[in-house]
Structure prediction request, 680 residues.
Amino acid sequence: MALEEFSEIAAARRIQRLSSHISPALTEPPQLQTEACSSRSRKLVVNGQALSLYMKGKHRDIQEKVHEFYNSRPDLQTPLEISKDDHRELCMRQLYALVREAGIRPFRYVADDPAKYFAIMEAVGSVDMSFGIKMGVQYSLWGGSVINLGTKKHRDKYFDGIDNLDYLGCFAMTELHHGSNVQGLQTTATFDPITDEFIIDTPHDGAIKWWIGNAAVHGKFATVFARLILPTHDTKGVSDMGVHAFIVPIRDMKTHQTLPGVEIQDCGQKVGLNGVDNGALRFRSVRIPRDNLLNRFGDVSRNGKYTSSLPTINKRFGATLGELVGGRVALAYSSVGVLKVSATIAIRYSLLRQQFGPPKQPEVSILDYQSQQHKLMPMLASTYAYHFATVYLVEKYSEMKKTNDEQLVADVHALSAGLKSYITSYTAKSLSVCREACGGHGYAAVNRFGGLRNDHDIFQTFEGDNTVLLQQVAADLLKRYKEKFQGGTLTVTWSYLRESMSSYLAQPNPVTARWEGEDHLRDPKFQLDAFRYRTSRLLQSVAMRLKKHSKTLGTFGAWNRCLNHLLTLAESHIETVILAKFIEAVRKCPDPSARAGLKLVCDLYALDRIWNDIGTYRNVDYVAPNKAKAIHKLAEYLSFQVRNVAKELVDAFELPDHVTRAPIAMQADAYSQYTQVVGF
Prediction:
């Protein structure tokens, strides 16, 4: 639609609406100071360099160092066709090279500077996703469990070996019969007071440790999560103290042979991430010293007495898992990196590819078609939104590690669960959209979508199944809701529930429900209020449903009856947090040109989400019919505007050539490079 026509229609509607109302109160809101929306005739120019500097932040240098190192080493770049065994060895060489040749030591930042660690992980994952996961297993999971769940004696004994890769290790939590339900794990660690040892046992096949990264080939140690069993003098004979973590050697340090009592099997070929050597572990009366208990939250004395600063099994279990949220933070952050790569490939191709056009005129770029814009421009806006949300998550996680503040721990736990679930699910869907948007060329393996999709797919499952994680978010929201009405305190991320729950649950204002001016629709307050209104209504309604159904179905039955409602609530809340952080990032951007570009994609993100759930807003008259139409048309127009600066926006990600190495994504001579790849 032409700009003049769009403005004339909006003006005509305003005149008609104003004349049909007697009340002088029905007026448009005052002009708002919004970036890049006061004049549609002005062409938006985005300073890509300034935007990139703002996006990369203070860890830009370490990411560039990683990219430059692997770009200069063709021998460390993963070929298109590679066997499982060769891929595993290549990933191991890639990790050794990072630490021993490039001189980058990620483990030193896991506890002291998590933001820098995650920046390294994002850069490493862009080289090969299997490499990124293998590094995460070594440092986030195996190394992180030692320093977060152990005490000084464990750090002193193991830190250097983990750091320099002498002590390659595993994180043995998941079992064949238990994944998400960690409290249901069946592996046992029974204390023997005579020898001062723990005996690690796999009591049945269902307790075999399964999908354990680094176990099949390279690992020498494993952090094994097992039920701590202590002998007692009562009729029971033993006491189950709940799940604890133990360091268990699994291979000889010199010969690399499997140690007595340990059985290791290879999980074999997977859908993706075949550079990671996942294996299965069975333990048959494997004895380890008492000191191998990671005893930060619970300890056993020489005479078998158990002590803990936390009074119950549930408290100890919660504290243990709370120290392991770094894995979820890493996956959310890394998933955004995958989304950047796939969106960049698809958008660059769409700018280059030409098909059809007006009669007797040159063909046009396929990104000029509204349907292609609809597929890719909201995705680009979402990529920016998720970038700033995960940057915020990393900042909160870093603060949590420094302060150990209880409220912050709870906030980060729920936020990491929500963002990991929401972003990885969105990225998984977007990879298929990007492949489709590139037509037949997107199906060629060399153009990366298949590999990215297969490698990323498991992100939706490990470190917590996405559906389970969303339920954790919903449960936390219900807890905050209860606290709000009992006068309790709320953490920062949930503060809007305390500050204005009553206003969000009031009847929609019939005046503002009809405002449809562009300045109003692009006002951050309108956008954020709409998101918060939806979340507040969902929260109140599901709380009432749970109360009603629990009387007849019990707590578990009521939860299951309302489960889809709860999942929708969790997603709505996470979208609200994402938008709030995006708006804040726009406001803080120092460069006016870069800020204008961010404001454009922020508005598209917000209005596209509102339109996608317009039924919710219409059902309660939060948005009148004409306003709904205005939201839709403005979202379409913003997609067109984003298309005009799409090149600058994807270039601002600063992804090096070896990352977006798909021939169809090259910015010059793409087709000649593509034909060379296939042999012409």
In short: DSSP finds 23 helices and 13 strands in the chain. Residues 1-39 have pLDDT under 50 and may be disordered. The chain has three domains: 48-161, 171-313, 326-361+368-505+519-663.
